[in-house]
Amino acid sequence: MTSPPKDFERIVQSDRIDELLTILSGPAGLGLSLENRDSDPMPALLEGFQPGQPLLLDISTLGERIGKLRRGVGFRLVGQGQGGMIRTPVLKAVDIEDKEGRWWLRCPYPGYLEWQQRRDAFRAELRLGMQAAVAVYDRDRGVSGLGDLRDLSLTGCRVELEASGLTAGLDPDHRLALEMTFPDGSIFEVAARSPHQRVDAERGMVSVGFSFEDLNLEQERRLWFLVREVEREAARTAGGMRKDLAPSSLFRRLAPAPLRANPRSRFPVPVMAEKLAPCAGWLDNQILVLRQGQHIDGAQLSRQADRLIELWEEDREGLLFATRCLDREPLLVRHGLGVAVHLLDLARAENMPRALCKALAAAAMVHDLGKALLPPNLLALPVLDARQYSWLQGHVPLLMQRMDDCGWLTRPVLDAVVGDINERLDGSGYPRQRQGDDLSQLARLASVVDVVDIMSRQRPGRDPWSVTDIYAWLDRNGARFDRRWVNRYRDHFGIWPVGSLVRYPDGLIGRVAALDQRGLPSRLRLPAADGGWLEAEELANREEPEMSLAAPAD
């Protein structure tokens, strides 16, 4: 809610207006508050501005409230900066446009701004050596993350989180639970939303701005204390120790910081999965990067592809197995890595040049990330009607437009693995319904790897399929896929592929970690409750597995 007009100072100087608008267009972001509505500001993004020219806003997160703006309801843009609250006068939309799945609003350039000094807008920053852990819980979706507190105010905080399934799925409209633990062992719990995120791709971290919600009187009092203590300790340690300030009891280490939660999996996570995790973390970050209007980082993509090849050369079967052990990451990340590793493995088996293998793995890692630019509710639908399916197809050109920084990827590879991976020989694919001889051998190969991986994973409204059922489905749909590559895939990975779940006649269930020369499991990972590994000698006296199973949710 905004404060009464009398509390605000009117800013009319053009250079000062530009300065405050620059703050609103920065990482701290802004909110859009409907006129005469008793509600909190809604997240929006100021894409940029030129003095005197209409403002351009991304309002994709507003949902059904976009209709009110189209009907002429006035609004203010509000935000924080320079120790105070910034807001525009009441504005009205000049134009609202739906473009490539995002909603854009143009409104007049404000003739003035209003600024109100607010103590509760002050953010106390934790200096070097001051540590506080923050656990973030999304209880509805069953995911969590842990990071470090960077600053704190009466209205929110900034937390640096490790990239995870939670960070990639951050939604400004979704309510989260925060639990801050300070060195003295004291804990502060609060509900919050995450309107702002900024990616640090080099470090694999995400800086998240949280806005607190539904504070009661006791929480407000506690926040005053915490902010004051953080500010005092920061002042005490700034530029050397200030002897006139006593150390804050809040930062006297009496209890260890909480450990980051281990992935919850039926099967213990092997070392190779830990080595693969940084690649997954980077892909998580790229989802946020894309949603913030940026492009795929070509230099980092090259490094991640090199890392995949190094891991493959270190332990081929270990890497294949690891693609089934990641369970904290979103489907887009798990699927991208699964396709990348299996496509790389087939390419190496075909003796393709190393540079081509690297390009194929790189393109496969990101091939589906354009879906991150689509509305989340569209991706959650188990069945799509004709209009929704057409909308879904837009993820391919959306991603292709964001690959400008990946000039080292050759156009044939980019077209095959990103542009044509969803095409089919009979013309039933998308986005261009290419068919037959129009599709390269690389595109035909990639489409087989892609469909096998996605059908083996849990998806919205769809249970995973067993390898046996997937192979049977490919046989029934022979007109859609290149028979040579279907057979080559089956011959190469076998009927009990590494990573698949199998059951033996005596009821033993395990995940295949290695195969012998006959294509039979020679190493099996048992569920955590049943022990560790079964090696070749322990499997030699058993009969062949009786069937492959649909794997549980990854």
Automatic annotation (TrEMBL):
PROSITE patterns: HD_GYP (PS51832). Pfam families: HD_5 (PF13487), PilZ (PF07238). Residues 308-506 form the HD-GYP domain. It comes from the Bacteria. InterPro entries: HD/PDEase_dom, HD_GYP_dom, PilZ_domain. CDD domains: HDc. PANTHER family: CYCLIC DI-GMP PHOSPHODIESTERASE PA4108, CYCLIC DI-GMP PHOSPHODIESTERASE PA4108-RELATED. This is Phosphohydrolase.
